[in-house]
Design a protein that fits this description.
This protein has 9 helices and 3 strands; from the N terminus they run H-H-E-E-H-H-E-H-H-H-H-H. Helix 5 packs antiparallel against helix 7, helix 5 crosses helix 9 and helix 8 packs antiparallel against helix 9. It is 76% helix and 3% strand. With 266 residues, it is mainly alpha-helical. The model has no long low-confidence stretch (mean pLDDT 85).
């Protein structure tokens, strides 16, 4: 199936999924869980087939800026669909589906230099897989933290908004946030360890800035977890620390890749 057909199909399904979630959030329709899951799985399948045609290139994987973004957005949707089977995370689809659609569109209309990794570079591929998983988990955590932040503020002001009425209770939202942070921290630590083992020269491979910001983000997340269990950090404080750590991690990945590939074309 052609790349354009797969892209259009995925975008169409993501649009339907977003519309259904938005209407359900506003109380306009009562969506069937099986139907919304089916739409999500179909969109994920089309998205995955698109990845196979754009990221894999004759014995190598292309991890350039926009191709990596398509891969990360696919993994975000994959993780979210899995989580939705046992956790009340349906509200996160309102951020994940449009994000996935945006990465697909940008990958089609833009071009950056290829950054190929041979398929037999198992060490480097394991590092990339762990890094992408960590980025995906922390992206979900950032969306969750944003919703949690506004939910906290509105409840403190006794403002019974649409957001407050549709989100799970604060305790559930907080528990979900820290589960995502814990999972992301584990993946990030493993990614940093495998990077130290398999990346031979950080400066020669233009990875010094990425490593620095990744370590800084890890420090922020570990500080958040320590603060959570020693000082009882929660609510708005937890949201702010999560968003700060996610911002540093996004700088580590997207900031360095943006400068190298889109500015310096390296």
């Amino acid at each position: 199936m052609g790349t354009l057909i797969l892209a259009v199909t995925s975008l169409f399904l993501y649009s339907i999924g977003t519309a259904l979630q938005a209407l359900s959030f506003r109380g306009r329709v009562h969506t069937n869980a099986a139907i919304t899951m089916l739409i999500g799985l179909l969109a994920l399948t089309g998205h995955g087939l698109l990845l196979g045609q754009t990221v894999y290139q004759e014995g190598s994987f292309d991890f350039s800026f926009f191709q990596s973004s398509v891969l990360i957005s696919w993994l975000i949707v994959f993780l979210l669909l899995g989580l939705s089977l046992r956790k009340p995370v349906q509200s996160l689809f309102l951020g994940a589906y449009p994000l996935a659609g945006l990465t697909i569109i940008l990958s089609l209309i833009t071009h950056t230099p290829s950054r190929l990794v041979p398929e037999d570079s198992y060490g480097m591929l394991s590092h990339i897989a762990l890094s992408v998983t960590a980025y995906s988990l922390f992206t979900l955590a950032a969306i969750q933290a944003t919703l949690f932040y506004f939910q906290n503020r509105q409840l403190k002001r006794n403002y019974n908004s649409l957001l407050v009425r549709n989100l799970p209770p604060l305790q559930t939202m907080e528990s979900l946030l820290f589960e995502m942070v814990w999972a992301g921290v584990i993946m990030l630590i493993l990614a940093i360890v495998t990077g130290a083992l398999f990346v031979k020269d950080l400066f020669a491979q233009d990875l010094a800035h990425k490593t620095l910001f990744s370590l800084l983000s890890l420090v922020v997340f570990v500080a958040l977890l320590i603060g959570r269990y020693t000082k009882g950090w929660r609510g708005i404080t937890a949201s702010r620390w999560t968003l700060a750590g996610c911002a540093l991690l996004m700088l580590a990945f997207y900031g360095s890749k943006f400068v190298l590939e889109l500015v310096f074309h390296r």
